[in-house]
């Protein structure tokens, strides 16, 4: 029996993957989680053969993948990331993913991805591959792009700027009248879109895109 994990706090994507699995596989057991931290809180979990990584309110997808790879090194990983631009999917493969789906992917792509990954191969949608090739030809790095190219919202820009100035989550939440959890979620989305992992990288990116703020 295959053991499959889904990590996504959104019920609709989880339902869609569950439906696809029911159509494609016969003998499997599905475990779904709202966040990666929820995995450690459950006991007697089996070792997963396959892990779907979607949206986590606490961590960006790349950090979830890196964290789980250390624990489940023999599992197969499919990342479906609707926030990251398709051309940036290569970063997930570098971190150990076996399949990547972006906002350009459709249900047929998801089905083909599942089959390919379960056959022991890597999967990248043709549309995503085209985007990656364009990135190579242009020769630009994600960290050098402007905020407009990453389509950050005004709120995301505002919170990113405050973090870069040295403010903490609680201070930003108080200043903007938001909950700390909301600020943390926005921060995770910003890190994900800018392909960065810490405040130092954030400051560097802001310095390079100052004219766009």
Automatic annotation (TrEMBL):
Domain HTH luxR-type: start-end pairs: 145-210
Keywords: DNA-binding, Transcription, Transcription regulation
MF (Gene Ontology): DNA binding
Superkingdom of source: Bacteria
Signal peptide: none
Gene3D superfamilies linked to this entry: 3.40.50.2300, Winged helix-like DNA-binding domain superfamily/Winged helix DNA-binding domain
GO biological process, one term: regulation of DNA-templated transcription
Pfam family, one: GerE
InterPro entries to which the protein is assigned, alphabetical: CheY-like_superfamily (IPR011006), Sig_transdc_resp-reg_C-effctor (IPR016032), Sig_transdc_resp-reg_receiver (IPR001789), Tscrpt_reg_LuxR_C (IPR000792), WH-like_DNA-bd_sf (IPR036388)
Family matches, as PROSITE patterns: HTH_LUXR_2, RESPONSE_REGULATORY
Membrane-spanning intervals of the chain: none
Residues annotated as domain Response regulatory: 3-118
Protein name as catalogued: DNA-binding NarL/FixJ family response regulator
Organism of provenance: Dyadobacter jejuensis
Lineage, broadest ranks: Bacteria, Pseudomonadati, Bacteroidota, Cytophagia, Cytophagales
């Amino acid at each position: 029996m295959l053991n499959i994990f889904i990590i996504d706090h959104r019920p609709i994507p989880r339902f869609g993957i569950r439906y696809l699995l029911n159509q494609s596989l016969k003998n499997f057991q599905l475990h779904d989680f709202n966040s990666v931290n929820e995995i450690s809180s459950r006991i007697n979990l089996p070792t997963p053969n396959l892990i779907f990584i979607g949206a986590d309110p606490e961590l960006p997808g790349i950090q979830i993948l890196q964290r789980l790879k250390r624990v489940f090194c023999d599992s197969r990983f499919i990342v479906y990331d609707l926030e990251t631009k398709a051309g940036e999917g290569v970063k997930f493969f570098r971190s150990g993913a076996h399949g990547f789906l972006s906002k350009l992917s459709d249900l047929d792509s998801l089905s083909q991805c599942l089959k390919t990954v379960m056959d022991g191969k890597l999967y990248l949608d043709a549309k995503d591959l085209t985007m990656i090739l364009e990135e190579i030809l242009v020769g630009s790095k994600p960290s050098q792009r402007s905020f407009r190219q990453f389509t950050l919202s005004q709120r995301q820009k505002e919170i990113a700027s405050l973090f870069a100035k040295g403010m903490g989550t609680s201070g930003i939440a108080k200043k903007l009248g938001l909950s700390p959890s909301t600020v943390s979620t926005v921060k995770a989305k910003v890190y994900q879109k800018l392909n960065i992992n810490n405040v130092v990288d954030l400051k560097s990116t802001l310095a390079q895109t100052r004219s766009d703020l």
